[in-house]
Amino acid sequence: LAPMAGAQPIEIEAGDVSTVNVNAPVSLTINKYEGEIGDETTPLDGATFTIKKIDLGANLDSLAGWEEVAAAQTALLDDTLPATTGTPWTLETVNGTDSISTGIDPTFTVGAYLVTETEATGYTVAKPFIVTLPFTNDPGSACAYERTVSPKNQIVSVTKTVVDSEAVLGSDIDYTISASIPAEPMTSLSIEDELAIELGQATNVLVHTEYATTSADITLVELADYTLANN
Tell me: the pLDDT tens digits for 154-165? Predict the structure, then answer.
């Protein structure tokens, strides 16, 4: 939950008198930048997010409500999306930002919200995450009802270089496809190259990856580390 860094849920213990005002106006602002965490030099326009209110059985002025939020966050780590309610909101960044508030829509009220980013060609996409309104920057501190999150995007680039200056009909040509690997956990990576129908199937493929931290090339072995499909 990187977008929630530094923000904590409100701490309520059994028997406590809640300081949460369920009738307070709230707002959520999403700032979107290209690059690594902390790099805010390049605002990203056109990033689209869907905001859905999580269906809680109790309000956030109660211990039960926050226990439900904690359970939803735990489930989300296992890729289980919480149940939501009502009509969702859609935000699209302009100059790298967009927001929703009670002032814009009176139905946007105190609660927990699931934020999902729409995939965009050429960029990584932030994983779904939960924001609570209100929240606190430090356990035990006063509630804050206005919140800003900054989920990150990395550019995914793919380039192709072909050595064909001396190629003739029927000869082999060499070409290289280079693709950036997002700096985030992945289970698989697929690269597709649509060849012209006049070309034969690709053979003698060598795959390697270079890690910026070590500047060392690592050669991957076909079938053991990757598969090549000629469609």
Answer: 777 777 888 777
